[in-house]
Design brief:
By secondary structure, the chain is of the alpha+beta class. It has helices at about 1-5, 20-25, 50-60; strands at about 30-35, 40-45, 75-80.
């Protein structure tokens, strides 16, 4: 999915929320890091405040145990630090 976002290729999954659509349009403004633990921690950052707001909205959708996307364990964090 990260490669799709960077290439701005939205798969337009029928069950996805509306939040990923504008994120795919801004895929080149997002830096993503993943850390494997007893699940996965995904850290996405951007220097664009509008993209940060979208990332934070999407993080809230998936970080409650990943119920929206069916992940067993996920957490997303967004910041403007670029790190």
């Amino acid at each position: 999915m990260i490669a799709r976002m960077q290439a701005k290729r939205n798969p337009e999954v029928i069950i996805q929320s509306a939040t990923p659509n504008p994120l795919f349009e801004q895929g080149d403004a997002i830096k993503t890091q993943m850390e494997m633990i007893k699940g996965i921690i995904v850290t996405q950052t951007s220097t664009d405040p509008e993209v940060v707001q979208l990332l934070q909205t999407h993080a809230a959708e998936v970080s409650d145990g990943g119920a929206w996307h069916g992940h067993s364990m996920s957490a997303c964090r967004a910041s403007t630090t670029g790190k």
